[in-house]
TrEMBL record:
Spans through the membrane: none
Chain ranges of the Aspartate dehydrogenase domain: 168-251
Residue span(s) of domain Aspartate/homoserine dehydrogenase NAD-binding: 14-118
InterPro entries for the chain: Asp/hSer_DH_NAD-bd, Asp_DH, L-Asp_DH, NAD(P)-bd_dom_sf
Sequence similarity: Belongs to the L-aspartate dehydrogenase family.
GO biological process: NAD+ biosynthetic process
This protein's name: Aspartate dehydrogenase domain-containing protein
Pfam family, one: NAD_binding_3
Annotated organism of origin: Steinernema carpocapsae (Entomopathogenic nematode)
Single GO term (MF): NADP binding
Length: 274
């Protein structure tokens, strides 16, 4: 990748495993400069600011803010961030909230900003987006299979996930529209939310999500994608992503996020899957 004439100044929200990984890797890249980091827990030694400092004073130095914390950050701060810079939505389950998504769309137009949604573990995302652009995608199902210890779920899914922990067999936690699942597993189904953004003619209500807890799946996260098009077209993919026991994010997905951030260098204003 050729060096740009000036570095892109980046802020990162969320300093867990993924945030720290991006901080380290982007500092190695001549096209990026880390100028701010925010986290729920402040760390003065690491120059990590608290979320209360997500304000004009600290945002105006950024060209891009990368959110890799929690969808609540997008709900609460997207409108503030987009006044001053572009936004990378690392928790796209936030976009299942139609008020949040519509607000972001309006701000993108008002401020001539770019918003980026990473493909993550969603294999074939660009092909699916092209099918949606041509209005020839008729159905999309995304199935995610993880060990129950890797799932952080709420509501009625908690009991089902606990059942999986006490079993030797897979348990289907959910089968239905992506939109309803996003609020019950906000940290686990960002891949599905990305699918709903890519397949925009189907969206969060017509993309089907299946979430399965498999106690035998100790070292992997599996993502299966089934696409249906016109005239009998159908294709399926299965991605087996190495993941440590109990990990929310598979190891290969870290590098997919990094590649997505690098793509932000060359995208015009608008909302982009990358």
């Amino acid at each position: 990748m050729a060096a740009l004439s000036s570095k892109k100044r980046v802020g990162i929200i969320g300093y867990g495993h993924l945030g720290q990984f991006l901080s380290v890797e982007l500092r190695k890249n001549q096209n990026f400069e880390i100028c701010k980091i925010w986290n729920r827990t402040e760390d003065e030694k690491e120059h990590v600011l608290p979320l209360t400092k997500l304000d004009e004073e600290n945002l105006k130095c950024c060209d891009l803010v990368i959110e890799v914390a929690h969808p609540d950050i997008v709900h609460q701060y997207a409108s503030t961030i987009l006044q001053y810079c572009n936004l990378f939505v690392g928790s796209p389950t936030a976009l299942a909230n139609q008020k949040t998504y519509d607000g972001i769309k309006d701000l993108v137009k008002k401020h001539n900003r770019s918003v980026f949604v990473p493909a993550g573990a969603f294999w074939g995302s660009m092909d699916i987006q092209k099918m949606a652009d041509l209005n020839i995608i008729k159905g999309l199902t995304v199935t995610m299979i993880k060990h129950p210890n890797s799932l952080k779920v709420t509501g009625p899914l908690v009991e089902l996930n606990n059942k999986a922990k006490q079993s030797d067999n897979p348990v289907i936690l959910y089968d239905g529209p992506v939109r309803n699942l996003c609020s019950m597993a906000p940290n686990n189904v960002n891949t599905m939310a990305g699918a709903a953004v890519a397949a925009h003619t189907l969206g969060f209500d017509l993309v089907r999500a299946k979430l399965i807890a498999d106690p035998q799946l100790v070292n992997w996260h599996i993502v299966e994608v089934e696409v249906i098009g016109e005239n009998g077209f159908r294709t399926t993919t299965r991605r087996e992503n190495p993941a440590a026991a109990g990990a929310v994010t598979g190891s290969v997905t870290y590098f997919s996020f990094l590649a997505s951030v690098k793509e932000t260098l060359y995208r015009p204003p608008g909302i982009h899957l990358c």
